[in-house]
Amino acid sequence: NIYGNTTFLATSSLTPVNTLSNASGSNQAYKLNTVMVANPNGPNIPVSVDISRGGTGYYLAANVSVPGNSSLVVQAKDTAIYLIEGDTLRCNVGVGGYTCHFTVSYEVIG
Fold first, then answer.
1. How sure is the predictor about 86, in pLDDT bands with cuts at 50, 70 and 90?
2. Which of 44, 58, 50, 61 is nearest to 95 (CA)?
3. CB–CB of 91/99 below 8 Å?
4. By the 8 A CB rule, do 64 and 100 touch?
5. In sequence order, which residues have a C-beta less than 8 Å from that of residue 44 and are 6 or more positions away?
6. Dihedral sign, CA of 57, 59, 62, 66?
7. What does the alpha-carbon distance between residue 12 and residue 56 come to, in Å, rounded to a whole number?
8. pLDDT for 29-77, tens place per residue?
9. Residue 23, C-beta contacts closer than 8 angstroms, at least 6 positions apart
10. Could you tell me which residues come within 8 angstroms of residue 33 by beta carbon, excluding any fewer than 6 positions away?
11. Cβ atoms of 55 and 21 closer than 8 Å
12. What is the rounded CA–CA span in Å between residue 72 and residue 60?
């Protein structure tokens, strides 16, 4: 079975925040379709998105600047990335005091 879903995160955290986790023992894989970030603030804000696997973060985007009042596609559907059991997608901003909005579209397979 395949189920589509979308999750949202608004954060001003300077450290990675768990945004989508695939629990160990879930017997599922999560296919990331789209990862987007919106910056509703005036100034450019650096953001990072990574996948934590086994305690190590692997960046999809590292301190990428998102222009003020705009959005950026970090990962599009034409790039296949899967969260296997135990993986977590994490997001954070690089400048304190500003909130960015992350949107993750994904499919649960299993």
1. very high
2. 44
3. no
4. no
5. 65, 66, 67, 68
6. negative
7. 22
8. 999 999 999 999 999 999 999 999 999 999 999 999 999 999 999 999 9
9. 85, 86
10. 4, 77, 105, 106, 107
11. no
12. 13
The encoded tokens of residue 67 equal 């222009």
> 38: closest CA among 10, 17, 62, 60?
10
Whether the full predicted model's pTM is greater than 0.90, yes or no, is: yes
Cβ burial 37-56 (10 Å sphere, 16+ → b, else e): bbbebeeebbbbbbbbeeee
- Distances from the Cα of 28 to the Cαs of 8, 39, 108, in angstroms? 20, 32, 7
How far, in Å, CA of 46 to CA of 62, rounded? Answer: 8
SS3 15: coil
DSSP lists the bridge partners of residue 31 as: 82, 107
